[in-house]
Design a protein that fits this description.
alpha/beta, seven-stranded mixed β-sheet, six-stranded parallel β-sheet, 10 helices, globular, 15 strands
């Protein structure tokens, strides 16, 4: 099969397109013929091997254990491993797996769900990682309730574009924060208010919120807390620009240490995709309440360009990788 592979950590240029062996599904795994994959910050971190804590977490100290990057996927089931009961060859699925920047990838059965009937493969591939992260941040981390005021920092990105729509579906009043160039997108997603962070500080304390989602940000906890009500909740989703060793994760550690001693709730988020969460997203997508925001689609051979574009910070929503040169299904 054709796949993007890497033998060392580094910039996107370490990736190359080559022929490699097709994976074999193990117990509880599904082999998917990948029609589309997607790019997010997690893909870049694993390609770069940064921060170093990622390597120590089991992804390979000196070189990546998995030569093929990519997590999000959408495609058709090619084969199933032992003990798989929910899928059979030919089923259209979406979810997360290992090595989705390839014509075939394996995924655990519990990380796949039937593809929404109203989405093509490319749009469906844009959902799993970012959509599940947004859902868990709001529902599980934020314990969102109808009528709450919610502030979403990073509202125009992959996770943020889903968070805006999900918060509205949960009945919240949503303020999205982004650059002015992306304000039209955030409004189109349903935000009640949009703040351009280049011209206004969204956490200066003049307005307070029941729930704040800080997505891949780097603001200090003391500043973020100014935007919370006395018993409000802050959910930290990832982080950038935090150094080579633990990246932006020092804020998550600080939040865990501080939260027991204050009235506000400060919660880091650890998200793993599960078919039950994908089913929630499927129901909302098929009901027309959530729609993937796809900025651009790249052929598999141009996956390094997609990662570079993501890191430039100009993406509106999600970037998708079209695998095998096929058109939208």
């Amino acid at each position: 099969m054709k796949a993007m592979v890497q033998d060392i950590y580094g910039p996107p240029e370490v990736l190359r397109l080559e022929e490699t062996d097709r994976p074999v599904p193990g117990q509880g795994e599904v082999l998917v013929r990948v029609h589309a994959a997607a790019v997010d910050q997690g893909v870049w971190h694993l390609v770069a091997g940064m921060p170093y804590a990622i390597r120590a977490a089991g992804f390979g100290l000196r070189a990546p254990k998995s030569r093929v990057p990519g997590m999000d996927l959408a495609g058709r089931v090619e084969a199933v491993g032992p003990d798989v009961t929910r899928f059979r060859p030919g089923d259209e699925v979406y979810g997360s797996g290992t090595g989705s920047f390839a014509e075939y990838a394996c995924a655990k059965e519990d990380r796949l769900a039937p593809k929404p009937v109203n989405l093509g493969f490319e749009a469906a591939a844009a959902v799993p990682v970012s959509g599940c992260t947004a859902l868990k941040a709001l529902r599980d981390g934020g314990r969102i309730e109808a009528g709450q005021r919610v502030l979403i920092l990073g509202a125009s990105g992959g996770v943020g574009s889903y968070a805006v729509q999900l918060a509205k579906a949960f009945g919240a009043h949503v303020t999205g924060v982004c650059s002015g160039a992306k304000a039209d997108l955030v409004r189109s997603l349903g935000a009640d208010e949009v703040v351009d962070y280049l011209h206004e500080d969204p956490v200066d304390g003049r307005r307070r919120y029941d729930l704040v989602l800080d997505i891949a940000g780097n603001r200090r906890l003391s500043r973020l807390r100014r935007a919370l009500t006395a018993r409000g909740t802050l959910v930290i989703v990832g982080g950038e620009e935090g150094g080579r060793w633990i990246g932006g994760n020092q804020r998550q550690l600080a939040a865990l240490a501080l939260s027991p001693f204050i009235s506000q709730n400060l919660r880091p988020l650890a998200s793993v995709e599960h078919h039950s969460d994908l089913q929630v997203l499927t129901d909302l997508i098929e009901a027309g309440k959530v729609t993937p925001a796809v900025d651009r689609t790249y052929p598999l051979a141009e996956a390094p360009d997609a990662i570079r574009h993501l890191r430039e910070g100009q993406v509106r929503g999600k970037l998708v990788i079209r695998v095998g040169g096929q058109q939208e299904y």
